[in-house]
Write a structure and sequence with these properties.
The protein is of the alpha+beta class and about 300 residues long. The chain is built from 8 helices and 17 strands. It catalyses: L-methionyl-tRNA(fMet) + (6R)-10-formyltetrahydrofolate = N-formyl-L-methionyl-tRNA(fMet) + (6S)-5,6,7,8-tetrahydrofolate + H(+).
């Protein structure tokens, strides 16, 4: 089939690479406009746009998917289908109607669970044991379209969003390619999503990523893993922000008040509502990431110090 691939971040690259290496023709990509990046805030193309340039594929970067110039160019390309992975913008009806087989999204959850922008983060935060990926026909509703195929993936006890998303992106690339093959062969039928089990995965904001040490240890653990690498879990120490890497349970018998710090020779404990956790890496404001034990040696803890 003649395809136009829509996606923006690194997460979309395994699927784009699979389609480029397949028997399908990737005639163009649709991706978000260049954005400021790095300390110099220079305008930089996203990962999908960069990969398209390497492959000699046209990149369309509309500010909005309803822009007339973009819609005219898409009609001129005349794709059979538009596969989508993490494009990052809503698609209007005018765009959805152009390809004869529509737009097919690879979504990183077992729909109808975790419809929305942050399905992997929400699955980890919720404490789910299993998640997966699904390909579905995009409608004007939010991730409500009929499903072509699914795969499942266990959530490991130490998984961060980055870990889990990496596995799903790789496995999902195969699922998306299989879906394109099945649509082309006319052997794949999309089935409506169940009406039960619907949940919504709103984006996690930086404020959501602030750790509440009065919560149970299991919630603190899930929140930090869900926010790694983005938006990045954080707390405050002496009124300054400190970014946090994943934590692990403290040895049995330790008791600390929520937020209370205790430094040992090789590890740093912090209290929660239930039992303490061991801090991993930390990144004080304006400084590099370091082991928590190295951090506390440089700040000289007092009996009144705590994380808030």
């Amino acid at each position: 089939m003649r395809l136009v691939f829509a996606g923006t971040p690194e997460t979309a690259l395994p699927a784009l690479d699979a389609l480029l290496a397949s028997g399908h023709e990737v005639a163009a990509v649709v991706t978000r406009p260049d954005a400021p990046s790095g300390r110099g805030r220079r305008m930089e193309a996203g990962p999908v746009a960069q990969r398209a340039a390497e492959a000699g594929v046209e990149a369309l970067k509309p500010a909005k998917a309803r822009d007339p110039e973009f819609l005219d160019r898409l009609r001129a390309i005349a794709p059979d289908c538009c596969p989508v992975v993490a494009y990052g913008a809503l698609l209007p009806r005018e765009a959805l109607d152009i390809p004869r087989h529509g737009w097919v999204n690879l979504h990183f959850s077992l729909l109808p669970a975790w419809r929305g922008a942050a399905p992997v983060q929400r699955a980890i935060l919720h404490g789910d044991d299993v998640t997966g990926a699904a390909t579905f026909q995009i409608e004007e509703g939010l991730d409500t379209g009929p499903v072509y195929g699914v795969l499942t993936e266990p959530i490991r006890p130490t998984d961060t969003t980055g870990d889990l998303l990496g596995r799903l992106a790789t496995a999902g690339a195969g699922l998306l390619l299989d879906t394109m093959n099945g649509i082309e062969a006319g052997v794949l039928e999309a089935r409506p999503q169940p009406t039960e089990g619907v949940s919504h995965a709103a984006k996690l904001t930086p404020e959501d990523a602030r750790v509440d040490w009065t919560a149970p240890a299991r919630h603190v653990d899930r929140l930090i893993r869900a926010c790694t690498p983005a938006p990045g879990a954080w707390t405050t120490f002496r009124d300054a922000r400190v970014k946090l890497g994943p934590v692990r349970p403290a040895p049995d018998g330790e008791k600390l008040s929520p937020g209370e710090l205790r430094a040992g020779k090789a590890e740093v404990l912090v209290g929660t509502a239930t039992h303490p956790v061991v801090l991993g890496d930390v990144q004080p404001q304006g400084k590099r990431r370091m082991a928590a034990a190295d951090w506390v040696r440089g700040v000289t803890l007092t009996g009144k110090d705590a994380l808030h």
